[in-house]
Amino acid sequence: MVGDFRALVGAAGRAVLRPSAPVTYGLIALCCVLFVLGPAGGLNPAYGTGGELLAAQRAYFLRWGVVPAELFAGVPRAVLTPATALFVHGSWVHLLGNMLFLYVFGALTEDRMGRVQFTLFYVGCGCLALLGYAAANASSAQPLVGASGAISAVLGAFLFLFPRARVTSLLPFLFFLPLRFPAWVVLPFWAALQWLAASRSPQGPGVAYLAHVVGFGLGFAYAWARYGPATKVKAAPPPAPEGENQP
């Protein structure tokens, strides 16, 4: 799966300053280490070069990725692949795009949820997102890998918890000028694009837009059910202009 994260590059929430997010940073480190050591990164000489490296990459994705046809055929080794696939990435672009989004949106979400809850949330929603895509392509023998579904869930939770956080966006049709919008504008727009892409994409392997949609919906629904409107974190008001009386 190639993560379709191309528009967003940053976010800032006023509600929490410099949050402690060891799980988020640990997930990023783990994914990066596994990628560099594995055949997908192309840096480990143990996997050879050329055709030998390509064969090793295919075997690696088939072993640790979700293969829908095997999963729903009851192949024993496929049972755990929805979890292992979250830590496997297909290319440098895939890895860096996903890790950028996890870095930007994961820290505040983890700080709000707590370490244990965030870990269970990330893995659980990520597995369900991959299963949702696999169920829609049950006959596919193409391996599905990547953390996009889990990170989409983080985006969904972030939208509920920090709707007023300012998100820096790069818009191609505006010559990639960096513009800042509230999360409640940017993230639903992103989710709508994923939904449109999922509905128009042909059946079969490719960018797993459906996993993005499922993950985003699960993340938002979980945050809504767990915290509710009364406990939603709101952004702090900006400081008053100089000379204005403070309350």
From TrEMBL:
<keyword id="KW-0472">Membrane</keyword>
<dbReference type="GO" id="GO:0016020">
    <property type="term" value="C:membrane"/>
</dbReference>
<keyword id="KW-0645">Protease</keyword>
<feature type="transmembrane region" description="Helical">
    <location>
        <begin position="207"/>
        <end position="225"/>
    </location>
</feature>
<keyword id="KW-1003">Cell membrane</keyword>
<keyword id="KW-0378">Hydrolase</keyword>
<feature type="transmembrane region" description="Helical">
    <location>
        <begin position="120"/>
        <end position="138"/>
    </location>
</feature>
<keyword id="KW-0997">Cell inner membrane</keyword>
<dbReference type="InterPro" id="IPR035952">
    <property type="entry name" value="Rhomboid-like_sf"/>
</dbReference>
<feature type="transmembrane region" description="Helical">
    <location>
        <begin position="86"/>
        <end position="108"/>
    </location>
</feature>
<feature type="transmembrane region" description="Helical">
    <location>
        <begin position="144"/>
        <end position="162"/>
    </location>
</feature>
<dbReference type="Pfam" id="PF01694">
    <property type="entry name" value="Rhomboid"/>
</dbReference>
<dbReference type="GO" id="GO:0006508">
    <property type="term" value="P:proteolysis"/>
</dbReference>
<feature type="transmembrane region" description="Helical">
    <location>
        <begin position="174"/>
        <end position="195"/>
    </location>
</feature>
<protein>
    <submittedName>
        <fullName>Rhomboid family intramembrane serine protease</fullName>
    </submittedName>
</protein>
<feature type="transmembrane region" description="Helical">
    <location>
        <begin position="25"/>
        <end position="48"/>
    </location>
</feature>
<feature type="domain" description="Peptidase S54 rhomboid">
    <location>
        <begin position="83"/>
        <end position="226"/>
    </location>
</feature>
<dbReference type="InterPro" id="IPR022764">
    <property type="entry name" value="Peptidase_S54_rhomboid_dom"/>
</dbReference>
<keyword id="KW-0812">Transmembrane</keyword>
<keyword id="KW-1133">Transmembrane helix</keyword>
<dbReference type="GO" id="GO:0004252">
    <property type="term" value="F:serine-type endopeptidase activity"/>
</dbReference>
